[in-house]
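Is pyridoxal-5'-phosphate placement plausible here? Inputs below.
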Amino acid sequence: MFDEIIAHIRKLYSRKENINLHQPFFAGNEKKYLIDTIDSGYVSSIGEYVNLFEDLLAKKLNVKYAIAIMNGTAALHIAQIVSGVEKGDEVITQAMTFVATANSIKYCGAEPIFLDICKNSLSLCPEKLLSFLESEAEIKSDGQCYNKKTKRRIKACIPMHTFGHPAKMKELLEVCEKYNLVVIEDAAESLMSKYRGAYTGTLGKLGIFSFNGNKIITTGGGGAIVTNCDIIAKRVKHLTTTAKVPLPYESQHDELAYNYRLPNLNAALGLAQLEQIDSFVLKKRNIAKQYERLFNDNDSFKFVKEMPESESNYWLNAIVCKDSFLRDDFLKTLNNQGILVRPAWNLLNTLIMYKDNQTGDLTNAIDLQNRIVNLPSSVV
Ligand SMILES: *Cc1c(COP(=O)(O)O)cnc(C)c1O
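Reply from A.M.:
I modeled the complex. Tokens:
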């Protein structure tokens, strides 16, 4: 009963026996730039490609600063430190996201609170956020938001743009402003996705990206923080480069910091990839259009479309199956035939290290987690 879908995917990725969910695509200056780093000797922590990559990324996203970092998880960690997240704080995020979002909260000594996602954006739901804060939180005389139950300060909120689909940022920003929460966008999956004409990652106080091998562009491993704030940008650069004081030849460090920089070798690959991003997005939107047509008028599978006011990069295409039995059947059949399709992440509040963390009402997340399947989405 899945024959038409299988035929469609096979045709889309015609020359492949085994079809991956998402693999990198190298068609530009990748080899040239990589060889250049080797020839010059600058493969490590110093080199021009880091600056070139950061400059092009900032330009593409129409944001003031982009700071390259060794991976998206490290970027999330630093983003929270510079946002003032401290030991004993709490940070709100969505239950359905990649584990790194929550892990990075714990790295700060803070605890994640898991809230629900919207049915259509699959990202943090502003209505659920507001109702959680209205019943569970209060603003104290210091102007900060506190959890009435745990007495801990709630410092920040990290919405994640799931599979590339922008969250409802206007509403989320309004709620977070009311409760004095710093908004950090986990835009790891949504490079070049737009919301009301602005790029995801640039709408909150700061945003993070990942350039892991499975993302829309890759640096091998890598990430970035973007922001329009001068002070934050400066702080991020300092904290990710061992707090080294710029002196002509002496080595001096003025605080405890991290070696989270992106090597020049990785930045060279990233620059070549970023030069092609516009064509990647076009191709991915075209793949999505074809999937949308395939699942049009289908009672068993609903294709996840971009929302009004949003332009998705369609990093990973997704369908919502009628029920979990159909989902299981579909996963088994296609994977057995070498077509890698996969379910959504297990909700983070069900993982052993987060089983005692506070959650809100998770109706949508629980329902969708049972029924979502991601489809092969590589650029071809
Ligand atoms: C990939 C990803 C990350 C982490 O990125 P890494 O570069 O692999 O550390 C964080 N959040 C989300 C939602 C991701 O998809």
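Short version: Residues 25 and 85 are 37 Å apart (CA to CA).
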